[in-house]
Amino acid sequence: MSKIHSIALLPGDGIGVDVVAEAVKCLRAVEERVGAPLFEFEELSVGAGEYLQSGNPLPEPTFERLKSFDAILLGAMGLPNVRWADGTEMTPQIELRERLDLYCGLRPIRLYAPDHSPLRSAEIDFLLIRENCEGLFFARHQKVDPDADEVRDILRISRESSERLFHDAFQQARKRRGKVTLVDKANVLPSMAFFRRIFDEIAPQYPDIHTERVYVDAMALYMVQRPGHYDVIVTENMFGDILSDLAAGLIGGMGMAPSADIGPKYAVFQPSHGTAPDIAGKGIANPVATILSAAMMLDWLQLHEPASWIWKAVEQVYQTQPSIKTRDLGGNTSTTEMGLAIIEILRKV
After folding, report:
1. Contact of 71 with 269, CB cutoff 8 Å
2. DSSP one-letter code for 275
3. What is the pTM of this model?
4. Which domain holds residue 113?
5. What confidence tens digit (pLDDT) does each residue in 107-141 have?
6. Residues 306, 334: one domain?
């Protein structure tokens, strides 16, 4: 663990600033436990706030600078009242996925306490894998005539992106319980039938992995009815965007849902939630999703043992201190108190 890893911090907008601060504290606690420096942090300005300052939410010099880091830890970006002329919000986090080829979106969904879930389920533990760079999001850069009577978005599915996504899904399943569920709409959309055909071509290369195929509308039902059935779920960009929010609702909300956007060379780690400007700076945001995203970053940096310390610390907080809950889970623990509770266990777990 002697290498010092350079980490770009992109707190962004809204509660991104609050939750990234707690993740950094946890990473510093990891260093204390190791007894040696592991990280060199540099904070950069990206997001709607940066747009208001410079006219660009992701300045080109900043983008080029990001390529020099070992990993990127991101808070949240965008504000509902800061929009482009066509009415869409600033989404530099999506631009980072596309320009850095972060095609594989990993979204682990794990329930830490039954009372966090509206289902009161005993066990929810699956990994949703979202293709990040094409799908229905592919059309987002099109120029639209403001006087147009009709606007069409093109859903793009390519063989290259699908093949690498499915290989990643099967490899993730080998680390877990050995099952992959494909989610598509192959009964209606030709692009989705193509998506499934590529999945069916890849699956025989992994004879040890059980597979199943589910239409996205049915998946929205099954994910609520039997979430414990699933292990690895892989799907298209927009479907993954929607289902990951539904999945987060099953485990207590977006404040419990970490994520990683990974490509061949670069990776960004961030909570699945947005900027929540209505509670920014009030000290009530849940930092757990960001702290767990930092744990995912450690795994990607091959710091597997320290990553496990963070995962176990979060688990122990919720299992041994049921009164420690932020507002989103029905408690009154502050952002910093939540971070401190995790750090106290992290130092000795």
Report:
1. yes
2. -
3. 0.94
4. 109-140+154-255
5. 999 999 999 999 977 789 999 999 999 998 887 87
6. yes
